[in-house]
Amino acid sequence: AFPGLAAGQVSASETSHLLGAGIAFRKRLCEACALGPVAGIIGYRYLRLKDQLGISSFSSAPGSAFAVSDEFETRNEFHGLDLGVTGHMTNGPWRFDWLAKVAVGGTFTNIAVNGSSVNNIGGVITAGPGGLLALPTNMGNFSDQRFSVVPELNARIGYQFSPQLRAVVGYNFTYWTGVVRPGGVIDTTVVN
Fold first, then answer.
1. Is residue 60 pLDDT above 60, yes or no?
2. 2 pLDDT more than 80
3. DSSP string of 109-158?
4. pLDDT digits (tens, 9 = 90+) for 72-92
5. pTM reported for the whole predicted model
6. What are phi and psi of 62, to 5 degrees?
7. C-alpha to C-alpha distance for 170 and 178, rounded to whole angstroms
8. Using a CB cutoff of 8 Å and minimum separation of 24, what contacts does 173-178 make?
9. Residue 50 burial by Cβ neighbours in a 10 Å radius (0-12, 13-18, 19+)
10. Integer Cα distance of 20 and 75 in angstroms
């Protein structure tokens, strides 16, 4: 926007969806370890992260109007072997559960970049491909795959008030290497 000459606005929207699933086999490794009963885990882990980023702008001046739209979408899917250990410790009504595991496998990424612009100058409307950041030089659909590691740590502590009532609080930490997000695919070099 240029005060006194043109008015304008910019809007951006972002959505992220994360889904995880897996199947595992547990085998008791130690019944009376220092950390209580400990079990080993081996299985399959699946993760999917889908992100969408849309940026649109509109500006108008006497006799003209310009609308620009940029859309960036990334979809990452992980398939891998899950390995880890889990256990728990109890002390009266208190119980501490823990889990440490790592998944190794591949991340398969799909990227979609699209843009469009519409100009209205003196009543003549023209539309074309390419926005401000999504231009014909970087628009399209792209795919990639890479080796990835997904470590996970989980800790929970609970208190058993009665046979039917237990309160639990916990924390889960997961890190996924090799993920592509929309911000990483934006080319900030604007060339027309």
1. yes
2. no
3. EEEEEEEEEEEEETTEEEEEE--SSS-TTT-EEEEEEEEEEEEEEEEEEE
4. 999 999 999 999 999 999 999
5. 0.82
6. -55, 120
7. 27
8. 174/150, 175/150, 175/151, 176/47, 176/49, 176/76, 176/78, 176/107, 176/148, 176/150, 177/107, 177/148, 177/149, 177/150, 178/76, 178/107, 178/109, 178/146, 178/147, 178/148
9. middle
10. 14
- Identity of residue 127: A
pLDDT at position 32: 79
If we measure between CA atoms, which residue out of 59, 76, 67 comes closest to residue 19?
Answer: 76
Q: Is the pLDDT of residue 28 over 70?
A: yes
Q: What is the 3-state secondary structure (H, E, C) of 146-179?
A: EEEEEEEEEEEEEEEEECCEEEEEEEEEECCCCC
Distance CA 132, CA 125 (A): 18
Q: The tokens of 3 are what?
A: 């005060």
